[in-house]
Amino acid sequence: MKTTLKLLMVLFVTLLVSCGGKEEKKKESFSYQKKTTTEKAATPKAEKVPASKKVDLDNKGIGPITSITLGAEVDQAMATHGEDVYKKMCTACHRADKKFIGPAPTGILERRTPEWVMNMILNPEEMTQKDPLAKELLIEFNGAPMANQHLTEEDARAVLEYFRTLK
Question: What does the chain look like in DSSP terms, one character per residue?
Answer without folding.
Answer: -HHHHHHHHHHHHHHHHHHSS--PPPPP---SSPPPPSSPP-PPPPPPPPTTT--BSS---SSS-------SS--HHHHHHHHHHHHHHTTTT--SSS-SSS---TTGGGTB-HHHHHHHHH-HHHHHHH-HHHHHHHHHTTT-PPP-----HHHHHHHHHHHHH--
